[in-house]
């Protein structure tokens, strides 16, 4: 992987970082182009030569060689070496581990997923599985651990700034985050472990529905609700990483706890079937009650099934109360529904929008669904790993 031959003095280091940020944010450029950052052309050329020598910048064919030369001395052309290393993002969920390898511009090279065996799930097996899936995915891409600049692992647990989770009453948090921050400590220079909803917010803020917003909330809805909260452009974490855990919903009348949207829809639909409150011919009767899941309910509602629509409207009402609670506390301009349920959540979101104005005195936030799909945590993990590399690349 790239490395500087020696530690530069503070001023030179600052200039190298400034030039790297410029190179990272654009395509091919010349030294004259880079003068927009406020350095002289001669200084930029010296810095570019040093960055090229350590592998962070690549010199391209000049304008004569690439056919664009017209007259005068051909300009030297450079670009950031996006393939100088890779980053790894992992969504270490309860039922699966999704691993994404990307280059230093965030372009995905490869993604793979493995299921977690619930019968064999333990802190030790999860650590072993994490090591195996990352090793296997790097094998797929043809990279070694020496080429990994950073890894970020998303977990369904609160995570503090050190990457550790507090003790949970049934040790669930210790099982889902079994000290992951130490698994690769001897192989990868930058290791981040973060809450999955926080990483969903990173993804939305980087490439999704939160782009351009300084105040937004991302609800990650899988089996359970979690929130990534951005206020004044800053992600909120808390002393123990618990800001977005949403456990307070257990204390709020009508909120129905922390179950995710799909799980709520399935539970309400099963109850309607059990109570005989479903019309003959309903899509909810085409399978056994135990086979009714959130996807079936949302698809049936989308196709016009009146019983499924009733369920979706009820779930939307609960969502409105949850959004109203969070909006009254954090005053976001936008609330994004993310996770695997998002593609089918239009009906729930529409119902919630109808009820929100009556629940808030503050301006009602935009309520939208994510376009990033079930991979939102993995996307956020990659983006967070990239941000960490950009902040400390000269120290690697």
> How are helices and strands ordered from N to C?
HEHHEEEEEHEHEHEEEHHHEHEH
Spatial extent as radius of gyration? 24 Å
Biggest sheet features: 5 strands, mixed
Number of strands: 13
Oligomeric state of the chains present here: single chain
> What structural class is derived from the secondary structure elements?
alpha/beta
Arithmetic mean pLDDT? 93
List the total number of helices: 11
Helix content: 25-40%
Low-confidence parts, pLDDT < 50 over ≥5 residues?
Answer: none
Strand content: 15-25%
What general form does the structure show? elongated
Tell me the distance between the termini.
Answer: 9 Å
Strand numbers in spatial order across the main sheet: 6-5-4-7-8
Question: How would you portray this structure in words?
Answer:
The model has no long low-confidence stretch (mean pLDDT 93). The chain has helices at residues 10-24, 31-34, 41-53, 123-141, 172-176, 196-207, 261-274, 294-302, 306-330, 346-355, 376-392, and strands at residues 29-30, 57-60, 77-80, 86-92, 96-103, 108-115, 148-155, 190-195, 216-221, 225-231, 234-235, 334-338, 366-369. It contains eleven helices and 13 strands. The chain is elongated. Strands 6-5-4-7-8 form a five-stranded mixed beta sheet. With 396 residues, it is of the alpha/beta class. Helix 6 packs across helix 11, helix 7 packs across helix 8 (294-302) and helix 7 (261-274) packs antiparallel against helix 9.
